[in-house]
Amino acid sequence: MQTVSGAQPFPFHFDSRHTALVVIDMQRDFIEPGGFGEALGNDVSLLAAIVPTVAVLLEHARAEGWLVVHTRESHAADLSDCPPAKRARGKPLARIGDQGPMGRILVRGEPGNAIVDALAPAAGEIVIDKPGKGAFYATRLAEELALRSITHLIFAGVTTEVCVQTTMREANDRGYECLLIEDATASYIPAFRDATLAMVRSQGAIVGWTATLASLMEA
Ligand code: TIU
Fold first, then answer.
1. Which of 3, 19, 147, 173 is deepest in the core (most CB within 10 A)?
2. Ligand 1 centre from 37 Cα, in Å?
3. Cis preceding linkage at 9, omega within 30
4. How far is the C-alpha of 15 from the C-alpha of 171, rounded, in Å?
5. Could you tell me which of 212, 218, 217, 201 has the C-alpha nearest to residue 9?
6. Confidence band (pLDDT; 50, 70, 90) for 94?
7. What is the bridge-based pairing of β-strands 99-100 and 103-104?
8. Starting at the edge strand that comes first in sequence, how are the strands of the sheet with 209-211 ordered?
């Protein structure tokens, strides 16, 4: 058993054999110019800034032997898994499925849908394509975790208040103990990242814990 003493609101305990790192949506579509994130009117450099930190976390997880899960927000080429409401909303410079500089926006298999090179999944790691903001909705994630007796999830990725928070809430309702790494998550709206960190750990870890990468690595 390991303890993250510096976690908030109180120490987080976990067993490496039952722990997975879940890296949410570190895709070119959100992190590089020309993808979905920029199409929504955002400054993607805010997200690119955490790539080196997530890379250190990923190496740590691999060295510790944790299960590693990567997710990608993505849709089928025929958009059959993209609700019209999702496609219609946003501040569309371009919409999901439209042609962009990195291929069709947020469509599975297109260059822009890939995880950034620095965080590329290694052989044997789980990659979950998800049509929603949460990684449990309409995916096999719950089954993959159950098969491996995973009880604790350590989260990183983007964006904090959208796909990371949604997934963490889904996981919390399913009974997982969830820790979000503060400097390995980012938002296009930094105040929303900070608010999310505060709200997940409020009321006695109502959704879960938060900790810096340094305090995780001390554990
Ligand atoms: N727009 C935004 O902040 N996020 C998303 O659309 N998806 C994820 O968070 N991955």
1. 19
2. 7
3. yes
4. 17
5. 201
6. confident
7. antiparallel
8. 126-130, 67-73, 19-24, 152-158, 177-186, 209-211
Helix (H) or strand (E) holding 99: strand 99-100
Catalytic annotation on 43?
A: no
163 is annotated as an active-site residue: yes
Question: Rounded to whole angstroms, how far apart are CA atoms 67 and 171?
Answer: 16
**Best of 30, 74, 196 to mutate for ligand 1, by most ligand atoms within 8 A of CB?**
30
86 assigned to active site: no
CB atoms within 10 A of CB 38: 21
CA of 73 from ligand 1 middle (Å) equals 8
Q: pLDDT digits over 121-167, tens only?
A: 999 999 999 999 999 999 999 999 999 999 999 999 999 999 999 99
Cα–Cα distance measured from residue 180 to residue 192, given in angstroms and rounded to the nearest whole number: 15
pLDDT value at residue 138? 98
- Which one-letter amino acid corresponds to residue 64? E
Q: How far away, in angstroms, is 1 Cα from ligand 1 center? A: 33
Q: Which residue has the tokens 């990468």?
A: 213
Give, for ligand 1, the residue of 96, 128, 133 to mutate: max count of ligand atoms closer than 8 Å to Cβ. 133
Q: Mean pLDDT of all residues in the chain?
A: 97
Q: Whole-angstrom Cα distance, residue 219 to residue 3? A: 5
Amino acid in the structure at residue 166 = T
